[in-house]
């Protein structure tokens, strides 16, 4: 008998009918002889409706009270799912975050889990019950209700799977798994059967929205096998685990792209050894996330410092740099907006030199100019013109042998 | 500086605008130098909407999960009110039932409060905060969320006032206070300035919906002064306390009536000393509440046993009695439906004999036939024809000097 933690997101529990369908799905798992803990998010638009209410009442919307408000969304879902399960004759019990023993920092709207006490869940599982837990929420040491921020329900599921030493954590979603790239961009994108935590982390950080990076990090840390699969179909999904088998002849696992990229360059910054840190410490203080950084020495005594930020942060970044410019002694600030980042990810790169070079070649042969490059052991990212990005994804997908079987057939 | 517990019902927090108005009202109390704990119910139709959702998902609707579901209604209200108060510059914090230390029996949908631990509330009050508490809910020893059942938010407010030794518990509602009788029946009904717990209990039990009997009982038990007043107007309301001053010349405080009355008679029951108990134990087992009971010996060896029940229970009552009839040896079962109960309530009756006689005289002079009578120290109830009841309330209201000043003027 296996213990499975199953997580269903907001779109999977969007209506009473959806909840009944999830209940049948959970009941099936139990009927196959498994124990089940189910984590659910708030129903469809509930969270947005609650935020609307808050906006009508308050211009400040203090974080503690927003957490108090928003956590009702998951509480509604767990009660309804537990009821639906009982209607199917399955003994079940629902728990809020605090009841499930999910303890967090005393930080609102984005608390991190500090500690898990799954004793109540264990007790109910031993009595043969299905335990339904509210995702996204926990309780601080002071007894305040907290939320885990974006991707919170995935994180709840993985943390519970770790604490309960579950055999598997299944993340049910509206797609069938993790794809080699965005199926909206590449028709022949294919579902990846297995992927390693590190690869998944890179893909998640690079914009593959199917799993939140925090949940993947947590899964990696506690070695929890994760299965991403469809709420609506019974096909197997994508298994995320420590060591994923590479398919024959494939080095790159997936291709990600991100259109939310702006580039900023500080031109002609005098080469003083505290200038670089001054720039990025100041940006960090302003909570501006910097992605790719390139420093190039243009003369003996001056450098250009270029980096990318999210487009939403561009305006503030320029404000901050304008204030710094004189202190740094820089010549000018240049920025560019119509950019995108395309990335190839694959653990196979470590043992296959020349993958980056192959990427540059493919892009260049297709007439694309690479403006910035960033690499890790298992990833290469290039910043290119936004107008080129969809084509770039397609040609890289083909070049690295990722096109699905149907595409190969078409090519013949 | 006084400590006040203020309770606002669902109609007082029905919309974001209502919540902002409640916030201003609470802020005014604080600006006058008082400390404030505020208890709120779920917004307007929230509870009904949640019940609808549950009905769509489940035919069983287990009580534990219904409590989990319905308590989100008050949690939404407290978060929004705390936000609205902070928008007015008032430091405030919201607490669910479990956070507020409201401990109950491990019974769902109608738990009784067993214990209060107001330490967190005290701590926040000491920091100068307004504490907003979810009504209607508590937590069992096992850590399950429970609800207090009908009138639950009033009970929460009174229990908090008792535990905090508050100077006053104000119940804000959509009427201006407790009236001498139903203003929809008697135009010259008047607001009662003061009333004793016992009188209020009788009126509440007799159908005055403004306060739930449980809350009044709790207030009496812990000697908490209660003020019932309007959420919309600033007029003083009705003060409920241990010893209420009687106005000069007035013995009866209020008149209640109830149209949900059916009479059942077991005719010709042999006089065996276990017959009476057999009837009422059986009804109690079936959860049928019996109100007035009259036994009259018609012959040496046979009696008639008559009693009243709520109309909804009449059908089941007759079923139960039909099964009992042979065992009891009764001749027949007779029932009557078009009945009503009219009651006069006043602590002054204890020291004023003849009040009951005066009531009978007034009804009889007005051509009404009294079918049953029941009395307590501070109440007389008569069962009469339903068609007479509004007239009965009016003539009694005038006869016992309760008509408001305008009526007296009209009479002259």
Structure at a glance:
Chain A has 412 residues and is an alpha/beta fold.
Question: What does the model show?
Answer:
2 copies of one chain form a homodimer. In chain A, the strands form 3 sheets. Chain A has an 8-stranded mixed beta sheet, with helices on both faces. In chain A, strand 7 and strand 8 form a beta hairpin. The mean pLDDT of chain A is 92. Helix content of chain A is 36%, strand content 27%. Chain A has 412 residues and is of the alpha/beta class. The first copy, chain A, contains 12 helices and 18 strands. The longest helix of chain A is centred in the N-terminal third of the chain and has 25 residues. The first copy, chain A, folds into 2 domains: 172 residues, 3-Layer(aba) Sandwich (Carbamate kinase), CATH 3.40.1160.10; 158 residues, VC0802-like (2-Layer Sandwich). Chains A and B meet through helix 1, helix 2 and helix 3 of A and helix 1, helix 2 and helix 3 of B.
- What is the name of the CATH topology of the largest domain in chain A? Carbamate kinase
Q: Order of helices and strands of chain A, N to C? A: EHEHHEEEHEEEHEEHHEEEHEEHEHEEHH
The backbone outline of chain A, from C-alpha atoms, is globular
- Please report the two chains with the greatest interface, counting residues with C-beta closer than 8 angstroms to the partner's C-beta: A-B, 39 and 39 residues
Q: What integer is the average pLDDT of chain A?
A: 92
Quaternary state of the chains = homodimer
**Largest sheet of chain A, if any?**
8 strands, mixed
């Amino acid at each position: 008998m296996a213990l499975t933690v199953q997580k269903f997101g907001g779109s999977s529990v969007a209506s009473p009918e959806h909840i009944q369908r999830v209940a049948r799905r959970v009941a099936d798992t139990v009927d196959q002889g498994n124990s089940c803990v189910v984590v659910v998010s708030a129903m469809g638009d509930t969270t947005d409706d609650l935020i609307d209410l808050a906006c009508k009442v308050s211009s400040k919307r203090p974080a503690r009270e927003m957490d108090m408000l928003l956590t009702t969304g998951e509480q509604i879902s767990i009660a309804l799912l537990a009821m639906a399960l009982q209607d199917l004759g399955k003994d079940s019990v629902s728990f809020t975050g605090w009841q499930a023993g999910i303890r967090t920092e005393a930080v609102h709207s984005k608390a991190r889990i500090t500690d898990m006490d799954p004793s109540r869940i264990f007790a109910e599982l031993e009595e043969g019950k299905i335990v339904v837990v509210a995702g996204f929420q926990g309780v601080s040491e002071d007894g305040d209700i907290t939320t885990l921020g974006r991707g919170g329900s995935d994180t709840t599921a993985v943390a519970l799977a770790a604490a309960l030493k579950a055999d598997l954590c299944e993340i049910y979603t509206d797609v069938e798994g993790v794809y080699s790239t965005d199926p909206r961009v590449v028709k022949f994108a294919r579902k990846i059967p297995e992927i390693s935590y590190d690869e998944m982390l890179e893909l998640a950080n690079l914009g593959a929205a199917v799993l939140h990076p925090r949940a993947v990090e947590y899964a990696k840390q506690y070695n929890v096998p994760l299965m991403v699969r469809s709420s609506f179909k019974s096909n197997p999904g994508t298994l995320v685990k420590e060591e994923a088998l590479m398919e024959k002849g494939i080095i790159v696992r997936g291709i990600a792209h991100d259109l939310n990229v702006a580039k900023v360059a500080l031109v002609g910054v005098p080469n003083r050894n505290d200038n670089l840190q001054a720039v990025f410490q100041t940006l960090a203080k302003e909570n501006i996330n910097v992605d790719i950084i390139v420093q190039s020495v243009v003369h003996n005594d001056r450098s250009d410092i270029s980096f990318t930020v999210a487009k939403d942060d561009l305006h503030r970044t320029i404000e901050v740099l304008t204030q710094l410019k004189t202190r740094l002694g820089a010549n000018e600030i240049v920025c560019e907006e119509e950019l995108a980042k395309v990335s190839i990810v694959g653990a196979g790169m470590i043992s296959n030199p020349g993958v980056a070079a192959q990427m540059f070649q493919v892009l260049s042969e297709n007439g694309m100019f690479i403006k910035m490059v960033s690499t890790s052991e298992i990833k290469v990212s290039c910043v290119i013109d936004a107008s080129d990005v969809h084509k770039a994804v397609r040609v890289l997908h083909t070049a690295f042998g990722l096109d699905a079987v149907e595409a190969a057939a078409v090519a013949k």
